[in-house]
Amino acid sequence: MGREPYKYRIKLSGKEKQELRQAKKKGRKEARLVIRILIILWADQGRTMAQTAVLLGCCEQTVLNWRKRFLERRSEGPVAALMDLPRSGRPPLYSAQQRVQIVAIVCEILHEHEAPLSRFSNSDLHRLILEKEESLTGLSRTTLARILAENALQPWRYRYWLFPRDPDFVVKACAILDLYAGFWEGQRLGPDEYVLTADEKRIQVLKRCHPGLPAIPGYEQRVEFEYERLGTVAYLVAWDVFRAKVFGRVAPTASIATFNELVDLVMTQPPYQDSARTFWIVDGGPPHHPSTFPARLQGMYPNAVAVFLPTHSSWLSQIEIYLSIVQRKVLTPMDVANDVVLTQRLLNFQDYYEERAKPFSWKFTADDLKKRLDALKDFVPA
Questions:
Q1: Which terminus, N or C, of the chain has the lesser number of Cβ atoms within 10 Å?
Q2: Is there a contact between 38 and 56 (Cβ–Cβ < 8 Å)?
């Protein structure tokens, strides 16, 4: 028999029990925190320290310590009382002044740019720092990496970005985002108005030079790296934003004529042929150039309206989402005998995808865009 819990008796309130039980169940928790919660919950149930220690596989002293700490820190809250206190850790090897000096030397190296490098690795910076400052000879590459990672300003890192250059970017982008939200020029779209996004994708027809190898235990399927090019095809496709319908055709090339055929494919069938308006969101590519496409589209179908993406803004077109799905699910890896096989595969995938397709969950609005641009206005290049 274990001894009675004569010290550090714990009686929890209903609220404390609820918080501890929720903390134990909610999300991923460290095992040690779960053990501490169980120690307190079982103490409330009257279990002895010996019984608790056996059930949790720990020593009685651990149970005793956490009962004591819980009572000492109970005012912080039942869960907070069981959290570890902040630890000082090992004293830093380099003072704040030395850390600033290291960062300053790195910034100086990048500014002078005397080394024939377009980017610097941690090893490159470490070597150049030791050449410039002899007092830092004990600086290790690991410590250097940690100091640089903790610094707020990091000019040694970069990422590519493209700021919109279209002078009418905001107007054009907001018009498209409003269409996705079901509005055009401030008015809600009617039940007989539709929104399509369309584009074309040029695809190489690739045939592998040698057969692949099937999967075996411990090894995945092997696909031959070397391939033979059998020409190209153009996949012209349109996506109905609200109805999640795909319309596509494959042609030898993307041109005005082949894109007109795609328009005919869509606009000659219900509900588009009898719609009040059908909006076509396209980029400024040659098959649908802004200087000719609007008038051509209106001449073909008076109820069709061309809406153009801003320059460098393909991310605004939902058809790009569908084309990325095609790339992953249909074209990778590619091994086809000829363009006829590839064409049939693309068209069959349209039918397969439509069986399960739902409208894309597009949550980015015109207001979100304006807020993002306001946040970036200080970074706009002159």
A1: C
A2: yes
